[in-house]
Amino acid sequence: MTTDVFQKPFVVTETPLSIDRAMQQVTNPKAGAVNLFVGTVREWTGDKQTQYLEYEAYVEMAEKMLQKIGTEIQEKWPGARVTIQHRIGRMEISDIAVIVAVSTPHRNESYEASRHGIERIKQMVPIWKKEFWTDGESWVGNQQETVAYPEGKPENGGETNG
Amino acid sequence: MVKILFFAGLAEKTGKREMQIDEGTNWQVGQLREWLQEQYPQAKSELSHSMIAVNEEYATKDEWINDQDVVAFIPPVSGG
Predict the structure, then answer these.
(1) Contact between B79 and A60 using a beta-carbon 8 Å cutoff
(2) In chain B, what are the domains?
(3) Which among A36, A128, B49, B64 has the fewest CB atoms less than 10 Å away?
(4) In a domain, A49, yes or no
(5) A101 or A45, which is more confident?
């Protein structure tokens, strides 16, 4: 039997993601709400058409940063249980790229914690998306020189209360 | 010896994903970046627009690099 990568709650993997599995990982008797954020591959961005995507990651560091986000969530919303799973490699339209699953005792916190999780991923987790359009390819993200990091690190990159 | 990692568009620009260099030990992160910009002039702006991690933690340009450190240049991320 192969190792189940999803035994880790914070995982970056080429294995397809499952909403049911993520939900089961956070569901527990003290939870009254489970919030699932599911990021999927978009075909149309304005009038540009995506054929497929490729995600690349600095896997070891990305998993460490996801773990850090999980710790932030548990500190801000006590009782929360979290898993964050990001897929990498080639993905087709509507494939699941990321799942942030959070359970909390009450519903409000589950929305807030979920939002915090996905926003922090977009700030500081070393994962990159390459779009293969019908008319070419490009790395997505702010790679067009509009954001500078003169200090070398992102704002709040190492903070636990970003 | 210092290990350098490049990713995404930066890896494409430099033509490398990783390299080991004898320089770098006892440099600050910012000095290493300037040195790399001289080695890879085609990636000059990508290097200045990248975040930098030392041993998998984000670092500032003033941080010192030690022997055997792994320094990763991280272009603006686009996960999610």
Answers:
(1) no
(2) 4-74 (3.10.20.30)
(3) B64
(4) yes
(5) A101
CATH code of the domain containing A132: 3.90.1170.40
Burial of A85 (0-12, 13-18, 19+ CB in 10 A): buried
Tokens of B8: 């995404």
Q: How many domains are there within chain A?
A: 1
* Residues contacting A65, CB < 8 A, separation 6+: A124, A125, A126
Range of the domain at A119: 7-137
Of A118, A128, A150, the CB nearest to B8: A128
- Do A139 and A133 meet the contact criterion of CB atoms below 8 Å apart? no
Q: Kindly state whether A147 is in contact with chain B, defined as any CB-CB distance less than 8 angstroms.
A: yes
Residue A69, chain B, CB below 8 Å: the answer is no
In a domain, A116, yes or no: yes
User: Is there a contact between A127 and B51 if contact means CB atoms under 8 Å apart?
Assistant: no
**Tens-digit pLDDT profile for residues B15-52:** 999 999 998 888 999 999 999 999 999 999 999 999 99
pTM for this one? 0.91
B58 to A157: CB separation less than 8 angstroms, yes or no = yes
Give me the residue from A64, A122, A150 closest to B56, CB to CB. A64
